[in-house]
Amino acid sequence: MGKAARERALPENEAKAVTRNIRVSPQKLNLVAASIRGKKVSAALADLTFSKKRIARDVKKTLESAIANAENNHDLDVDDLVVSQAFVGKALVMKRWTPRARGRVGRIEKPFSNLTIIVRQVEESA
């Protein structure tokens, strides 16, 4: 019974991980995501480990999840993985207010982001 299995959206040599509702603006998150695009996963993990950005911890967790998905779910070799895509999307924005002078109000926006990381297995050229 139950539903039929859905076709796999990614090619056989790719795996992905998605983190939703990260409490940081998409612009700041994209700076960290851009720093790992196209790198081997070992170099990307090293960059994220020693990054001074607060959000690098969450990006590292997402990258580790993508690596684990590739290894456990899709039987890909971890040593040959490359971060093929790392993209950021907007999520909800909390609106808050703070009092200002002369009875006015100041708007404070607290944005959230979504992060998607796709890793691809590439064969080493001899």
From TrEMBL:
UniProt key word Kinase: no
PROSITE patterns: RIBOSOMAL_L22
GO molecular function terms attached to this record: rRNA binding; structural constituent of ribosome
Any GO BP: translation
InterPro entries: Ribosomal_uL22, Ribosomal_uL22_bac/chlpt-type, Ribosomal_uL22_bac/org-type, Ribosomal_uL22_CS, Ribosomal_uL22_sf
Keywords linked to the UniProt accession: Ribonucleoprotein, Ribosomal protein, RNA-binding, rRNA-binding
Any single Gene Ontology cellular-component annotation: cytosolic large ribosomal subunit
Superkingdom field: Bacteria
CDD domains (alphabetical): Ribosomal_L22
Family designation: Belongs to the universal ribosomal protein uL22 family.
Record NCBIfam families: rplV_bact
Stated role: This protein binds specifically to 23S rRNA; its binding is stimulated by other ribosomal proteins, e.g., L4, L17, and L20. It is important during the early stages of 50S assembly. It makes multiple contacts with different domains of the 23S rRNA in the assembled 50S subunit and ribosome.
Subunit relationships: Part of the 50S ribosomal subunit.
Protein name (database record): Large ribosomal subunit protein uL22
